[in-house]
Amino acid sequence: MKFHFAPVQGHTDAPYRHYHHKVYGNDLTYYTPFIRLEEGKLRKRDIKDFTSSLNSEAINIPQIIFRDEKELVALVDLMKQQEVTRLDLNMGCPFPLQTGHGRGAATVANESLAKAVKKIITDNQDINFSVKIRLGMTAPDEWQVLLPYLNDTHISHLAVHPRVARQQYSGELYLDQFNDILTQSVNPVVYNGEIHTPQDVQRISSLFPNIEGIMVGRGLLGRPSLINEVTSGNEWPREKRLETMLKFHQQLLNHYTEELCGDSQIISKIKPFWEYAEDEIGRKAWKAIKKAGNIAKYHSAVALITQQ
Ligand SMILES: Cc1cc2nc3c(=O)[nH]c(=O)nc-3n(C[C@H](O)[C@H](O)[C@H](O)COP(=O)(O)O)c2cc1C
Q1: Pocket around ligand 1: residues whose beta carbon is below 6 Å from it?
Q2: Cβ atoms of 139 and 169 closer than 8 Å
Q3: Per-residue model confidence as pLDDT tens digits over 256-268
Q4: Cα separations (Å) of 211 from 114, 154, 220?
Q5: Which among 7, 231, 232, 247 is most buried, taking Cβ atoms within 10 Å?
Q6: Local structure of 201: helix, strand or coil
Q7: Residue that finishes a domain, picked among 207, 232, 257
Q8: Are 34 and 8 part of one and the same domain?
């Protein structure tokens, strides 16, 4: 079973990925949050993220988002100029700002784009492509438009979050549709969605023994040791999980303190670290962290984590 750390915009940037790998040292595959064209070019901050020297130790795959063949071709060309050898195609983002322009989940049922996706993958054998999808925008069987085209080419895997865009990030998971994709895909399939505990990993692995891997987003942000616990076969006691998470947090905070200017910049970069960790660190600390308006209050709030 292969494990993937799902890209999460605003969280899994290069420093986060690097220090996660440094502290937890597992063989997860990491992804950049989606990279898009702006006025026909790559944004400087996206280039900085995927070319950062912080990416050198783990597997880091850049991800692009596009709305039509023109954008797709332009992005792939620009990424080739940056000498990328692996590329993930975002065909699942549900943010209305992206889907409203025809990107992300809005691409799943776009047949002319599906043809272009197949062509670009087939024409660029020097790049190892993967694709990340949702089931569709509103109907959970929209993927049926895209899948035959992916089946006609070779990708390293197809990661599937079995929801539609309308649901955003909550609600029913269409596991029956996921199973249909798993059965019909000639390419390896990776499951993604609502994995929070080692038991969730076990449940999905036994429900779908033919998956190639599991991709975890919010579950790993809230419990960064999750995959270590799964691969070692031992659930870590809460004290060990918190102690290690605090070590990870400290390294990331040191990095931001060196890189950024001023407490407010540092606080706004580090606070999201805890966004999905309420269950892990307790409500009191979590609320205090959210409220902290300066660095001294932030440190006191973080100290509450081990006092509870
Ligand atoms: C705030 C936020 C930002 C996200 N950004 C991205 C992104 O840049 N690219 C992407 O493919 N998915 C993105 N996702 C989706 C996640 O990668 C993942 O598919 C989703 O959270 C479901 O998995 P999970 O239940 O394990 O979190 C984002 C999700 C959230 C909540």
Answers
A1: 6-10, 33-34, 63, 90, 92-93, 132, 161, 169, 192-195, 216-219
A2: no
A3: 999 999 999 999 9
A4: 23, 17, 19
A5: 7
A6: helix
A7: 232
A8: yes
